Amino acid sequence: MSSDEILRASQAMENLAKMVLERRNAATVDEKMRRLDDLINMILQINDCHAKVDREKLEQSLLRQSVETVEKNHQQYVLIPVMPVQRKAPARRRQSKLQCSFCQEVGHTRAHCEKRLHP
Ligand SMILES: [Zn+2]
């Protein structure tokens, strides 16, 4: 092997090692994120917040190491981005059984009746 080939081989090895390391780190970061996500969502559920972790934003701020903190009553808190969770369907299901007193169709009320509003 020429010194040139050796150099190229060692560079390839180095790149491969780097790739493996990066991938392993990515897997653990992913796993940690998932657990963190679950944990925070659990806390949010305890308080019935109707919110869940905004994982994308959380990841971004963790990667940039720009996690914000606030102080309240001499206690330091970490701010975690969350987004609202849509409430579940029962309300809508109930509404779909409503009958319109204007056109007698099911699924809307007189107030929202298209036939009444736009005849
Ligand atoms: Zn109607």
UniProtKB/TrEMBL annotation:
Q: Which domain of life is it from?
A: Eukaryota
Family matches, as Pfam families: zf-C2H2_10
For this entry, the protein name equals ZYBA0S05-07866g1_1
User: What species does this protein belong to?
Assistant: Zygosaccharomyces bailii (strain CLIB 213 / ATCC 58445 / CBS 680 / BCRC 21525 / NBRC 1098 / NCYC 1416 / NRRL Y-2227)
